[in-house]
Amino acid sequence: MTTVIDAKGLSKSYGAFEALKDVSFSVPLGRILGVIGANGAGKTTMLNAVLGLTRYEGELKVLGKDPAKDRDALMENVCFISDVATLPRWMKVSEILDYVEIVHPKFSREQALRYLARTKIPLDKKIKALSKGMITQLHLAMVMSIDAQLLVLDEPTLGLDIIFRKSFYSTLLEDYFDKERTIVITTHQVEEIEHILSDVMFIQDGEMVLYSSMDEMFETYSELRVPVEKVEQARALGPISETVSLGQTIFVYEGVSRDQLKALGDVSAMKLADIFVAKITGGQQ
After folding, report:
1. Is the CATH number 3.30.160 carried by domain 217-281?
2. Which of 198, 149, 210, 143 lies closest to 172 in space, CA to CA?
3. Phi, psi of 254 (to 5 degrees)
4. CATH T-level fold of 3-205
5. What CA–CA distance (Å, rounded) separates 273 from 285?
6. I want to staple 79 with a disulfide (CB 3.0 to 4.6 A). Which of 130, 143, 206, 240 is the partner?
């Protein structure tokens, strides 16, 4: 299996502040990885290292290349969308297509025009006249028209309404992703990407606290609601989170058999956002 990103001991400091602390992970080809963390957790710093936009300590290979030394060659096979990324506002839509066609050998103008034909984006309008949703659609149409192996999305739908967000991820999954491409996404709208992810990473204070396939994660974590008389028995099994809601105690477990838990109360599978909160906060919010 081809490895797209291979990080060993990846670290980054800004003076005394450690933005990344000895992070190691491997991302195979044909996966969609969600990187989840609070603001300032280290997500963007990690992505910037992968993209060759910041120096780092440790070992990092992206598509077999060192991002810090081989960025020009690497970017022939990598695309990137950020919430702060801006297209040249003085250009018309048709002009930005002209520009990308000239500078990127793997860009297909015909494919970009097919994507744009599904939108309401006029080719003769300047980018500064477009809404934020249209700019995001334009950016997506351009990157999806580049035959790249890795697509990095850093909060790509931040500030967009729910219709645009759902359309964005639907287009991404149906028209772009295949087993020859890998996508890495960071977002705070966890519920909206849960269904498209194959793998997930949790980052807290610069440290990776979880890396798992989605299937393994949903099998590993369970929620248990227990009556008062069985709280101490449930607590003895070592939950990672304990909260109280509507008079019931709710425990979250990592790696405890669901058959064992069923004897104590009501057991249920968990959503990605709930697992993240339990893992990071232990129920203390």
Report:
1. no
2. 143
3. -120, 115
4. Rossmann fold (3.40.50)
5. 14
6. 143
Torsion sign (Cα): 262, 267, 269, 273 = negative
DSSP assignment of the chain equals --EEEEEEEEEEEETTEEEEEEEEEEEETT-EEEEE--TTSSHHHHHHHHTTSS--EEEEEETTB-TTT-HHHHTTSEEEEETT----TTSBHHHHHHHHHHH-TTB-HHHHHHHHTTS---TTSBGGGS-HHHHHHHHHHHHHTB--SEEEEESTTTT--HHHHHHHHHHIIIII--TT-EEEEE-S-HHHHGGG-SEEEEEETTEEEEEEEHHHHHHHEEEEEE-GGGHHHHHTT--SEEEEETTEEEEEEES--HHHHHTTSEEE---HHHHHHHHHHTT--
Residue 39 has pLDDT above 90, yes or no: no
Q: Which residues pair with 254 in a beta bridge?
A: 221
Q: Are 233 and 264 in contact (CB under 8 A)?
A: yes
Residue 96, token pair as written in the block: 């930005």
Look at the block and give the residue holding tokens 């910041």. Answer: 54
Q: Nearest 10 degrees: CA dihedral of 280, 201, 185, 17? A: 60
| Interval 151-165 mean pLDDT | 83
Inter-helix orientation angle 162-171/132-144, to 10°? 0
CA 87 to chain centre: 22
Sheet of 221-226: strand order equals: 241-245, 248-254, 221-226, 266-268
Q: How many residues does the structure list for the chain?
A: 285
Give the amino acid at 145.
S
Instruction: Share the mean pLDDT of the chain.
Output: 90
pLDDT tens per residue across span 260-283: 999 999 999 899 999 999 998 865
> Which one has a higher pLDDT value, 140 or 197?
197
Say what the pTM is: 0.89
Q: CB 105: neighbour CB atoms within 10 A?
A: 9
